[in-house]
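pasting for the record
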Amino acid sequence: MRLIQIVGVLIGAFIASLGLLWFLQGMAIIQMRPILCVANCEPIVGGSPFWAAAGVIAFIIGIVVALFSARRGGA
């Protein structure tokens, strides 16, 4: 694998992992307290359809980027 392929696969895997985390948080399977907060932040209680949908979309995009990078060599 060339360097550009490795970088593309890593970027795709990162996006897919982030999408999976967002999906699990949106479905209220994983609950985390806010880590870096500027104002008066409170944890979201319950699921969030927006973050579940954003997670699915990001996961699919990440998988496509990783597969495209592995096959074609472009990021």
